[in-house]
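Quick illustration, no need to memorize.
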Amino acid sequence: MQVITPYQRTPHWLLSVVMLLLIGCATVSKLDVSRVNSLATPNEVARQPDSAIGKTVQWGGEIIAVTNRQDSTEVQVLAYPLYGDGSPNRELDATGRFLVVYRGYLEPLDYAAGRLLTVVGTVSELRADAVGQAGYRLPVIQAEQLYLWPKHHRNTSNTLFGIGIGIGIGL
C-alpha cells in the first residue's frame, strides 16, 4: 500500500512560489545593527546612565528640533519603539527623548520637525535640558548611521494594495 502525503500532491512549483512570496515579505533594517549591544530605551538610560554609557543602540523617533553647530549637527528626537525594519512606531507610547550628535552638516529643511529618523550610535553622556519648565536629562548618541524615513513612510490611508484574489472597497 502506497501512502501519499499532502506534500507529494502539491506541485513543486507552487511551493517555490510560496517561499518566494514569504521571503519578499520579510522586513530588513535599513541600518547595520550588528554592533547594537543595548536594548535600553532613552527613558531607561536617563534613569541608569552608568549601565548604558559606551553602549551601541538603535533608536528612532520623530524629530523635534535640529541645531547646526560649527562642526556638527544636533537632532533632538522623541523616541518610539521600532518596527522590524527599524522605522519608528508612533502607534505606541513614546519611550523618551534623546539627542543625536552627527559629525557634519545636516540640512534642517530635510531633517525638519515631524520627520521620522532612525539612528545607530554610541551613548556618550547625559545632557541637562528642559521640556517646557520641567528639567530633563537627554541621553546623547554619537551617530554612526542615520536613516531619514521618507515623508509618507507607513502613511495611514484607506487605500490598500496587495496581491491575491478577493473583493475590496476603499472609502
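Residues 12-27 have pLDDT under 50 and may be disordered.
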